[in-house]
């Protein structure tokens, strides 16, 4: 176990006694020289107000257990702060409060003097968050990933050339230039950690919060990751990280130890922690934290804090030694990149009470970026693309082989209940259920498998409706193409009406019907995907959904007479698909239009519900980050929902006049 060693002090240098081992490198760069008082990271330029202030924060778990108890500390610009403590001490809970994922019971968190709970969106987005898990698409190349993230996060006034340049600067800053052309999945563990960090650095946050950034790394990669974080802090950003690594403390400016119950046991310099705990071994320190109650550690710290760290409100004696000069760093990057490097989309600190204007890209720009990224993700998996391309031809060929010919031969509307209609019933049900399966299966995992990525992008200001719309655009285009191929092959020998009911082309009407039925199934799959928590649960629901669509399709006379079945049938796409196919065969234009309108309204209502669920599930606990709260009763979203329900009711009443297809 790494020992807690005391390093001799160099003449003219601040004390370098460290937790975590000897040989701690100097955090300065002799070539950079001293900073001027006007530099943003200079102690003389920081002013009296710390950058980040946590004041009396208390939080509880859903079961009512207190997980943070009166936590208070202050952090200056340019500090690298480690949060440590035994398992269950509330370290991750503290991170969640800083990022807005956990609501506060009492207290407040202030950034540049502004309360994050009530600040404008741009102020809240000045806090970046790098979780322990990788929140990147493994199939995409690193440069492409950063380009998409920059397009979604940088201000709308940023030009494409500036975004590309910002990506190059971040890659150079984190020494990822040689890996820019590799897929995320091909990067090593340390490189993936830096890739996740690069995503947050694109928007140049003032405060960067990391949860276990060195977990799973070998000692060499751990040292490299810590050196990267040290350099990020030296550029004037405040970095706060949760860690269990004692060796990481040699590069930190401050360390916080939390005891049981989320109570502060110590906050100050690593050197001060050595004297405070009087321990010479890391294991002994954690055993000591567990040996006493959190309240006793909290009381001791509060009674000794003034004597232990008297020189600044954050609990430390000195500022970082010789951090790097931000402007000098940009000049060095300019030399490497062959041109000037200017901050892109940088937002100056806003005085308290002064409103800021949202600067994120607009809805249409987000939609375009998300569609391009989704298409890139699909194209990156060639095997999946090949399987999807074969679905429609194979299923269409199977139906062509098993269905009796001439099943869709035109008949007058008065013959709708005759036994001669049984072949048409069979064909209609097969067409509707098959396209429903294709649409639902393609969409039912698309949101839940990206839940963690979606939550992080929502925190960065992503519009939930733009996200859902991007899924609909890509999956909708796919299902329309599949509907055309599948229906054409399946109906080769079915002799559909030459003129149909409305379009003057019977096969064309069938393709339109199956396409809209497929779109309704895609919408159903998306809302189910938004409601479940894991992809496995989504796949478990899929068979139940398909059987329900089959039962409620309206083709079974004995089932249709049961109480409530007719009302439930009106909420299924397969039912209206069968009704539209019946109208095409019988030539009933009114019934066809009623079924088509019902399918369109059902799809729209389901997509509105999907966007609402996505917003609720990714924002229900957030207290800032610039995300709008869930829609109030008078919101346009709910107004549209009520309008769609009324239109659906009208379509249902108008469609009831058409003769249903039922088997006896």
Q: Report the span from N to C terminus.
A: 79 Å
Shape designation = elongated
* Biggest pleated sheet: 6 strands, mixed
Computed CA radius of gyration, to the nearest angstrom: 31 Å
Strand percent estimate: 5-15%
Mean pLDDT: 78
Strand runs, count: 10
> What order do the strands of the largest sheet run in, or round the barrel if closed?
6-7-8-3-9-10
Give the uncertain stretches in residue-range form: 1-47, 306-358, 416-420, 620-638, 655-664
What's the helical proportion of residues?
40-55%
The structure class reads: alpha/beta
Query: How many helices does DSSP assign?
Result: 23
Walk me through what this model shows:
By secondary structure, the chain is of the alpha/beta class. Helix content is 50%, strand content 9%. It is built from 23 helices and 10 strands. The strands form 2 sheets. Strands 6-7-8-3-9-10 form a 6-stranded mixed beta sheet, sandwiched between helices. A 4-stranded antiparallel beta sheet has the order 2-1-4-5, covered by helices on one side. Strand 1 (52-60) and strand 2 form a beta hairpin. Helix 6 runs parallel beside helix 7 (219-234) and helix 14 (422-443) packs antiparallel against helix 16. The radius of gyration is 31 Å and the shape is elongated. Residues 1-47, 306-358, 416-420, 620-638 and 655-664 have low confidence and may be disordered.
């Amino acid at each position: 176990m790494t020992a807690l060693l005391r390093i001799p002090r160099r003449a003219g240098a601040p004390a370098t006694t460290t937790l975590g081992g000897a040989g701690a490198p100097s955090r300065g760069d002799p070539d950079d020289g001293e900073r001027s008082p006007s530099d943003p990271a200079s102690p003389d330029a920081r002013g009296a107000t710390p950058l980040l202030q946590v004041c009396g924060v208390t939080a509880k778990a859903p079961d009512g257990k207190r997980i943070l108890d009166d936590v208070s500390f202050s952090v200056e610009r340019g500090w690298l702060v480690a949060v440590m403590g035994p398992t269950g001490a509330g370290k991750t809970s503290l991170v969640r409060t800083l990022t807005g994922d956990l609501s506060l019971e009492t207290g407040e968190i202030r950034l540049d003097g502004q309360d994050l709970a009530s600040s404008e969106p741009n102020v809240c987005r000045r806090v970046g968050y790098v979780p322990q898990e990788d929140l990147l698409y493994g199939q995409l190349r690193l440069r492409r990933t950063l380009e998409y993230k920059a397009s979604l996060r940088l201000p709308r006034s940023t030009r494409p050339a500036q975004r590309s340049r910002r990506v190059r600067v971040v890659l150079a800053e984190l020494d990822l230039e040689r890996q820019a052309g590799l897929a995320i999945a091909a990067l090593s563990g340390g490189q993936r950690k830096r890739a996740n960090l690069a995503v947050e650095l694109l928007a140049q946050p003032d405060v960067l919060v990391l949860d276990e950034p060195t977990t799973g790394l070998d000692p060499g990669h751990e040292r490299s990751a810590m050196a990267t974080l040290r350099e990020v802090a030296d550029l004037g950003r405040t970095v706060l990280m949760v860690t269990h690594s004692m060796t990481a403390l040699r590069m930190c400016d401050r360390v916080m130890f939390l005891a049981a119950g989320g109570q502060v046991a110590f906050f100050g310099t690593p050197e001060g922690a050595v004297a405070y705990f009087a321990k010479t071994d890391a294991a002994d320190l954690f055993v000591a934290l567990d040996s006493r109650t959190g309240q006793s550690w909290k009381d001791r710290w509060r009674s000794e804090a003034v004597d232990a760290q008297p020189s600044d409100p954050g609990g430390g004696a000195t500022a970082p030694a010789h951090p790097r000069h931000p402007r000098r760093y940009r000049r060095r990057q300019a030399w490497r990149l062959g041109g000037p490097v200017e901050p892109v989309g940088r937002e100056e600190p806003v005085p308290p009470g002064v409103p800021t204007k949202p600067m994120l890209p607009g809805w249409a720009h987000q939609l375009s970026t998300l569609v391009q990224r989704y298409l890139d993700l699909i194209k990156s998996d060639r095997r999946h693309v090949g399987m999807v391309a074969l679905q429609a031809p194979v299923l269409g060929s199977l139906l062509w082989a098993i269905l009796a010919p001439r099943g869709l031969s035109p008949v007058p509307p008065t013959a709708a209940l005759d036994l001669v209609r049984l072949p048409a019933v069979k064909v209609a049900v097969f067409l509707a259920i098959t396209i429903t399966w294709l649409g639902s299966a393609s969409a039912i995992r698309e949101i839940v498998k990206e839940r963690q990525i979606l939550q992080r992008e929502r925190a960065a200001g992503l519009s939930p409706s733009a996200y859902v719309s991007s899924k609909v655009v890509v999956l909708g285009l796919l299902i329309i193409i599949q509907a055309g191929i599948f229906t054409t092959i399946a109906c080769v020998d079915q002799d559909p009406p030459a003129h149909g009911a409305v379009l003057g082309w019977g096969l064309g009407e069938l393709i339109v019907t199956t396409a809209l039925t497929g779109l309704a199934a895609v919408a159903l799959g998306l809302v189910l995907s938004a409601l479940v928590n894991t992809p496995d649960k989504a796949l478990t629901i899929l068979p139940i959904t398909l059987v329900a669509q089959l039962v409620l399709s309206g083709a079974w006379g004995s089932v249709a007479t049961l109480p409530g079945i007719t009302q439930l049938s009106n909420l299924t796409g397969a039912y209206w698909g069968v009704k539209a196919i019946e109208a095409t065969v019988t030539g009933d234009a009114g019934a066809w239009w009623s079924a088509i309108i019902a399918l369109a309204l059902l799809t729209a209502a389901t997509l509105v519900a999907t966007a609402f669920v996505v917003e609720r599930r990714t924002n229900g606990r957030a207290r800032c980050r610039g995300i709008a709260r869930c829609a109030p009763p008078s919101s346009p979203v709910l107004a549209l929902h009520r309008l769609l329900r009324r239109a659906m009711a009208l379509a249902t009443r108008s469609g009831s006049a058409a003769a249903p297809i039922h088997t006896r």
